[in-house]
Amino acid sequence: MSFHNSKTENDSSVKTHETIKEPPMYKVLLHNDNYTTMEFVVEVLITVFRKTPESATQVMLNVHKLGIGVCGTYSYELAETKVDSVHLLAGEHGFPLKCSMEKE
Known about the structure:
This protein has 104 residues and is an alpha+beta fold. It has one domain: CATH 3.30.1390.10. It is 44% helix and 20% strand. The chain has 4 helices and 3 strands. Helix 2 (38-47) packs across helix 3 (53-66). It is elongated and about 65 Å long.
């Protein structure tokens, strides 16, 4: 004995609506301090964020002049990993470079 209804299985008026929501994105930010060298900030931007030397220099100048610079926009997990990588590298080199993330 079958309990399925062939009318609803073949009825083209029965539609499913799935709304796929994009995951929120997060900006990764570098903060200015009086100890971390500009050269180290550029190195971090090139190695962690895969910036070109020119782009890394521009972000570093924003950090220096404005007090903060946007390194990129990523999914939560990737942004969190980037922040952790910056803190690890800065600690290994004796710099107090602060990196944070904020929801876009």
